[in-house]
TrEMBL record:
Source species, domain of life: Eukaryota
Protein's recorded name: Uncharacterized protein
Annotated signal peptide: 1-21
Keywords: Membrane, Signal, Transmembrane, Transmembrane helix
Organism of origin: Volvox carteri f. nagariensis
Bilayer-spanning residue ranges: 511-530
Length: 532
């Protein structure tokens, strides 16, 4: 069946290639030759090492950065040292001799990789998006079926033989990016460090992924571009507000969780991690949590979980409804983060009201955010047909895009003043026009601005993967092996490196359902250990 589908496509060779999983074949152009090595000695000059930027963020981040890379002449040592987990990888340049672990002070069970990696399995969509930005997406060989990027959706589909990371044969890939440390798989690479960091710190993990592909120079430039775009925009927002004496809209981040196993149905009003930073940098402010805790102290169905979110239970009870009305009374903008299975375009203001048990006939009177243009936002501006959002793929890598999207809705005057008309892509508004100017019965009939739902049909070339381009060692001018003093990078395809993919392809959460599940579970567990 898969073979038939392949024949229907033009990319017969690519399809057949994929039909037989086999050990990755090293393109010798990736490697350094011994002749050249004897002349240069060092294949990782300082221009091709990661640079570190001092990042100041509002979010409390106790550890400045949780990964380190030390460079030798022909190898690099990548370490992740977090409070709960740590891991060390030895990466050595292909064409050079594999270092002896004991001679460089590493334990015998250190995972060793010959780089650049050739064929990887990517269970984590953030890693996939970083690879896209680095111009090495052609080396994705297996990918999570929850991916949004259309060509990656195609790759994981049955048309391409189901190249899902869930079933990547161990010997068919030389690296497996996943969320967790897996001590048992010698080629697994952990990329879990992004969850609780501030947005810019998390985005710097592009440099971590880059090390596995010798793309540090590209990563340094891409991160600087993202960093500058983010800080320029947040500075513009701040100066506009100061100069024009603009008040900060109150922004509430809501999450609805259906009953799941032993975890009861609940509504979370979130205050933790990246939300403070994004809200304030976009010109808004979170609700006053201390005041709410006071006012709600006697509501038995309202708890505070260990990460500081308000959690509401017994959603049908009038007390819970009253608590939610209290929380939302002064809110100008609600961001509904909750998961919608299937076609997210069909989620409207009415769906939101039903999900959060808000009375449709009084909602517009009760809540000013429902009377406000752009008062109700979703993080599903772009998604796949299963409802997995591009936010989970792209948000970690592109805080500049996230901030721009949020400013579009929270402080639009700043972008108007700069004549910036870039459309949002990760965030969308369910109330895109002023309710008073649309229909007599107001906002509840509005269908929202719709989301972009991407499927494999949106992949332009309909090919199973692409031809793997070499990544020449940094000591070559070109891939002919000619020694030069200057160095050049493999050029970037038109839609990546410093640029986001136009087709959209985010997570926090890197949302494989497993992770989502674990996060929900953690949230649920945290909520049961509540405290005031
Ligand atoms: C990694 O963590 C383990 C267990 O917490 C600890 O024994 C070990 O020393 C740590 N290794 C490094 C390199 O930090
Ligand atoms: C790793 O292998 C050990 C021993 O076989 C097993 O107990 C453990 O569950 C495995 N861990 C993972 C993450 O698969
Ligand atoms: C909560 O209950 C206590 C004890 O009944 C009472 O003293 C307090 O005023 C109540 N607080 C609020 C905010 O209603
Ligand atoms: C709450 O109300 C909804 C809709 O009105 C209903 O489907 C659901 O069964 C109710 N849940 C409980 C626990 O009573
Ligand atoms: C999703 O729903 C919208 C609105 O109903 C529709 O226009 C669109 O075609 C649907 N997309 C997919 C992929 O089903
Ligand atoms: C919704 O509000 C209307 C108007 O106050 C009221 O008549 C109706 O009973 C309410 N519905 C629910 C389900 O509480
Ligand atoms: C991305 O590429 C498009 C098309 O080439 C271009 O119009 C856009 O300005 C680029 N964006 C960035 C941030 O470089």
């Amino acid at each position: 069946m898969a073979a038939h589908n392949c024949l229907l496509l033009l990319a017969v060779a690519a399809c057949l290639g994929f039909a037989h999983a086999a050990a990755p074949v090293r393109n010798p152009v990736d490697c350094v030759s011994s002749n050249l090595l004897s002349i240069t000695g060092d294949v990782y000059p300082s221009t091709h090492q990661i640079t570190r930027q001092s990042i100041q963020e509002r979010t409390t981040v106790t550890v400045a950065q949780e990964f380190e890379i030390a460079y030798g002449n022909t190898y690099k040592i990548v370490t992740i040292a977090k409070s709960d987990t740590n891991e060390t990888y030895l990466l050595y340049q292909c064409g050079t001799t594999k270092p002896v672990l004991s001679q460089i002070g590493l334990p015998e069970d250190t995972k060793v990789f010959s780089v650049p990696l050739q064929a990887v399995s990517v269970a984590d969509t953030t890693a996939m998006y970083f690879m896209d930005m680095l111009g090495v997406k052609d080396r994705v060989s297996y990918v999570t079926p929850y991916v949004v990027d259309p060509c990656m959706q195609l790759l994981s589909s049955s048309v391409c033989g189901g190249r899902s990371s869930d079933n990547a044969p161990a010997d068919a890939v030389d690296g497996k990016f996943g969320f967790y440390k897996d001590a048992n798989a010698s080629n697994s690479i952990m990329i879990s460090a992004t969850v609780e960091l501030g947005p810019l710190h998390a985005a710097e993990y592009i440099k971590y992924v880059a090390a596995f592909f010798n793309r540090e120079a590209v990563a340094n430039r891409a991160f600087t571009a993202v960093y500058n775009a983010y800080t320029d925009l947040s500075a513009s927002v701040l100066s506009y507000k100061t100069n024009n004496n603009v008040a900060s809209p109150v922004v509430a981040w809501l999450y609805y969780q259906a009953k799941y196993s032993s975890s009861p149905e609940q509504i979370q009003v979130k205050f933790h991690s990246f939300r403070v930073q994004y809200t304030e940098d976009a010109g808004g402010v979170l609700p006053n949590l201390a005041q709410l805790k006071n006012v709600l102290a006697n509501y038995t169905d309202v708890k505070v979980n260990t990460v500081g979110d308000l959690v509401l239970y017994n959603l049908n009870s009038t007390n819970t409804a009253a608590a939610l009305r209290t929380i939302l009374a002064d809110v100008d903008i609600v961001i509904d983060e909750s998961y919608v299975p299937g076609n997210v375009s069909q989620y409207t203001v009415a769906s939101f009201l039903a999900r959060y048990r808000l009375n449709e006939s009084t909602a517009a009177t009760d809540f000013k955010f429902l009377r406000t243009q752009n008062g109700l936002l979703r993080l599903d501006g772009t998604a796949n047909a299963m409802g997995t959002t591009a936010w989970f793929e792209e948000a970690v890598a592109r805080p500049d895009v996230v901030l721009h999207d949020l400013v579009t809705f929270i402080m639009p005057v700043v972008l108007q003043a700069a004549n910036d008309k870039t459309a949002p892509r990760l965030v969308r508004s369910l109330i895109p026009v002023a309710p008073s100017t649309t229909s007599a019965d107001g906002l509840l009939t509005l269908s929202g601005s719709g989301a972009t739902v991407l499927t494999s049909a949106n992949c332009p070339l309909q090919r199973c993967g692409s031809t793997i381009q070499p990544i020449c060692p940094a000591v070559y001018l070109d891939c002919s092996g000619k020694l030069v003093t200057a160095t050049v990078e493999r050029p970037c395809p038109p839609t990546n490196c410093l640029n986001g993919t136009s087709g959209g392809a985010a997570g926090r959460a890197q949302a494989t359902p497993l992770l989502l599940f674990v996060m929900l579970l953690v949230a649920a567990m945290a909520a049961t250990a509540w405290r005031w």
